[in-house]
Amino acid sequence: MDLNQLTNDPEAIVEADRAHVWHHLIQHKPFEKDIDPRIIVEGKGMKVWDIKGKEHLDAVSGGVWTVNVGYGRERIGKAISDAVTKMCFFGGTAGTIPGATFSEMLIDKMPGLDRVYYANSGSEANEKAFKMVRQISHKYYGGKKSKILYRERDYHGSTLATMSAGGQDERNAQYGPFAPGFIRVPHCLEYRAQNDYAGDSYGVKAAEAIEEVILREGPDTIGALCLEPITAGGGIIVPPKGYWEKVQEICKKYEILLHIDEVVCGIGRTGTWFGYQQFGVKPDIVTMAKGVASGYAAISCCVTTNEVFDKFKDASDHLGYFRDISTFGGCTGGPAAAIENMNIIIEEDLLDNSKAMGLHLNEKLHELMDKHNWIGDVRGMGLFAGIELVQDRGTKEPVDEKKVMGIVADCMNQGVIIGATNRSLPGYNNTLLFAPPLIATKDDLNHVVDAVDQAMTRVLG
Ligand code: PMP
After folding, report:
1. Rounded to the nearest 5 degrees, what angle is found at the Cα of 215, between the Cα atoms of 211 and 221?
2. Is the C-beta atom of 264 inside 6 A of ligand 1?
3. Which N-terminal stretch is annotated as signal sequence (predicted)?
């Protein structure tokens, strides 16, 4: 078919998609006859329109918590266009003007960190971090300090090494065997506490559970601890009071690098530039992706302290530098978009909006909890929230996953896009997720919560 004709014919687009596109994270069987694949054609602010002309209020920033500054930002489009027209790409052995400029802006927001390594996706940034840890182990510890700790329920990416550090068993179930040297530590969700504790000390207990793993494995075999600041897809788990202080103390005590995966929380989601900044943590390595350019371009960063960076600066050793490359880390479109993205957040006070609207969302979700016994727990920070659905508040038995997805589908019918921890944790795919763009207003959030209210009544009764 003539391509011009194709792009102007909605039905032909749907058929082309049905015939040739392999969508992410989705079963294709229903596309054969029951339903059409969803094609999103336009976005403005917090709204998107599909190819059938239906309007949706997007409470998950592009489905996967990415479009932090909202849709339709012409100035980001222009910045990308200007950058790639002038100088589209040069391999990362050289620098570029947007790359250098954004690194300066970013480091300004991350006191204590110094160096930015550019890549393309969250998984890739995490792989870079893992490789740094492994190389440090080889160079300074005879290869012994190579284990990387990761936490149950956390997610760090879709590649095999990041899946080896994946705390969501159902996602991993069919892709093993995984890479050796990745060791799991327990989650820190107080609502589903895994150890006995006396109330307010759960945070410390949960961190001590990490220390137990370190002692079991041998502290001198462990190079890094990799954690999400707030577990995202694993159920919006905000670490309890005392947790981060203890984690920091443990890392220091055993000389373990603290790698924080800010792929979701980074760039304003929780109301500060980074999630770790909510807890006063001092990481050695920080990775980020989604919000860096709000999805306008593919860019991720692995940011380190000079202490880490300097370990790769030994010129007497011909193997001493970081022997890694990411071809498209040399694209200028990513950092050009990231510069404008950050400028928008600053000019429009979107960190403050995330904080204020986050409080409003939290309040509305608690009101919903008063109304529906199905809600066992409301969690979140800034414009990042989750509600865990249970059959009974006493037993905390999770609501059936099909019903959880039924609520998501009902909201979709109402023109509101929300998310869920679907198909990642056996038995616990029962948390509805909200991560709207940082521009969300009270009216937007009320609309979202009303839709969830109606959907819960219809689906759960
Ligand atoms: N880390 C976290 C915390 C994530 O949520 C994700 C993606 N959802 C990733 C890493 C991987 O990012 P990407 O899909 O860009 O590889």
Report:
1. 110
2. yes
3. none
Residue of minimum CA distance from atom 13 in ligand 1 = 122
Residue (of 242, 302, 297) closest to 266 by Cα position? 302
Clarify whether residues 98 and 197 are in a common domain. yes
Interval between CA 172 and ligand 1 midpoint (Å): 14
How would DSSP label each residue in 342-359?
A: HHHHHHTTHHHHHHHHHH
pTM here is 0.97
Domain that holds residue 418: 38-69+349-460
Q: Which residue's CA is the closest to the ligand 1 atom numbered 1?
A: 156
Domain annotation covers residue 27: no
Q: Please tell me if the CB atom of residue 122 comes closer than 6 angstroms to any atom of ligand 1.
A: yes
DSSP letter for 229, please.
S
**Ligand 1 touching residue 120 (CB < 6 A):** no
Task: For residue 6, report the distance from its CA to the centre of ligand 1, in Å.
Answer: 33
CATH number of the domain enclosing 286: 3.40.640.10
pLDDT at 198: 67
Distance 125 CA to ligand 1 centre (A): 9
What 3-state class would DSSP assign to 304?
strand
Q: Please, what are the averages of pLDDT over each run of 10 residues along the chain (461 residues)? A: 78 95 94 92 98 97 98 98 98 97 98 98 98 96 98 97 97 96 97 78 95 98 98 97 97 98 98 98 98 98 98 82 96 98 98 98 98 97 98 95 96 98 86 98 98 98 88
**What pLDDT was estimated at residue 199?**
65
Angstrom distance (rounded) from CA 246 to CA 207:
6
The interface predicted TM-score (ipTM) is 0.99
Distance 10 CA to ligand 1 centre (A): 31
Residue 318 confidence (pLDDT): 73
Q: Are residues 175 and 297 in the same domain?
A: yes
Looking at residue 200, what is its pLDDT?
67
Q: How many CA atoms lie within 13 A of 198 on its CB side?
A: 0
